[in-house]
Amino acid sequence: MLTLNIKEELNKTEEKTKIKVKDLNFYYGPKQTLKNISMDIYEKKVTAIIGPSGCGKSTFIRLFNRMDEFVLESKSEGEIIIDGKNILEKDTDLIDLRRRVGMVFQKPNPFPKTIMENIAYGLKVNGWKDNFQIETRVIDSLKKSALWEEVKYRLKENAYGLSGGQQQRLCIARCIAVRPEIILFDEPCASLDPISTAKIEELIMDLKKDYTIVIVTHNMQQAARISDYTAFFLMGEMIEYGLTKNIFENPKDKRTEDYITGRFG
Amino acid sequence: MYRYFEDEIKEVKEALLNMSLYVEDMIYNSVLALKTTDTDLSKKIIEEDDEIDKIEIQIDEKCTEIIMRHHPLARDLRFVLATLKINNDLERIADLAVDIAWRVIEISRGENGKIAQEIEGMGIKVKDMLRNSIKSLTEENYELAKEVITSDKEIDALKNGIIEEILRNTDKVNLRKNLSLILAVRHLERIADHCVNISEDVIYILKARVVKHHKENL
Prior knowledge:
The complex is a heterodimer. Chain A is of the alpha/beta class. Chain A has one domain (2-260): Rossmann fold (3-Layer(aba) Sandwich). Chain A has eleven helices and ten strands. Chain A has helices at 2-11, 57-62, 94-100, 115-125, 131-144, 148-151, 164-177, 194-207, 220-226, 244-249, 254-260; strands at residues 17-28, 31-42, 46-50, 74-82, 85-86, 101-104, 182-186, 212-216, 229-234, 237-243. Chain A has a six-stranded mixed beta sheet with strand order 6-7-8-3-9-10. A four-stranded antiparallel beta sheet of chain A has the order 2-1-4-5, with no helix packed on it. The longest helix of chain A has 14 residues, at 131-144. Chain A is globular. Chain B is mainly α. Chain B has a single domain (2-217), classed as Phosphate transport system protein phou homolog 2, domain 2 (Methane Monooxygenase Hydroxylase, Chain G, domain 1, Up-down Bundle). Chain B starts with a helix and ends in an 11-residue tail after the last helix. Chains A and B meet through helix 8, helix 9 and helix 10 of A and helix 1 and helix 2 of B.
């Protein structure tokens, strides 16, 4: 089996596993959308998930903070172990899990509130009361998400007044304000222009110093540019997973090669 | 993303610069070894070649990675393409310095007198050509690249002069040794040709002009 080869290859590196996925299956009603997926996602690395539409990549990362809860008649089997605990178990504290595993979506989704309130929101939900502490954390998050210089005099303005790219960085700031350990990006640049995309990509490269990052992207060049590891999904199966350099330079599976060279279908 | 891309380009430039400094030393040491028939120094040069081969592969791999990750365009594309070729030229120059070192081992003893001094002079000129060709890259200096290309004529003339002189003084007794000297001069002249190639690639990077085989485009 191919996965064995890949595992051997991965074992050579000395990465620390942050998320361990074991024999994961997922069903929407009768339809199985994820088939027997096992992979290790490494701490403080960027892992990209690529594959054609409907291959299960978004479904896959949404399980990491249990967003599947919102889908009726869905069922998961297998394990997703984050720091030693299987988060698919019933007793998982979902509020805490979603603090630890933040998410940034395809379309920027700020709250219809001020820039300040957007970022302070997660802190308040987590019980923060001291305004000075909240403000300090808001400023820090804005700086880390490379937005501070653009909004420092506009903190009391509505977040909807920001450009698309700025809104997306605001969402990243909101996400990192609660100090997550893992950030999931679901096509974060899909609705952005090339300059905003470059800014977000640069930001992701900066963020990986502190966070474990998983990014779903349709854009293969983006995966090649920013990720350390890449997994290729096809019809619910993980076809190939390995160092980005190896996947893009010398993929082992013909299906991976066909997809990344645009010869698919 | 651009910041990270710039860093990677810079990294490649620095690696090329370091490699060229290393190769420059190899050229100089080879003509020095020839002048003093120093076989120990020659052996050292021959061993150093392994190091150059390793750096060559590293630079190739880095360029492949840049193409894979960043899909460079325009000037960046020209830079990566030209770097692959410059890398190859530097490695070939190192091989030629090694060839000169082998000629020294063939000669192995005895003084080479005035001729060796002339070869040393030529060697220093060739070494400077290499330095200037790489300098034209790091400083993005078109005029300097042009200068390297035009100075090749001078090296060719020097080569012809020195070979003539060796031939004039060749008899049955010193034929073998003089043949090695002629080959050493020929190796130096080839090094100069590679320096010209490097400068042509630098001009390609800077001006997007192909001056190879078309000196009128200079």
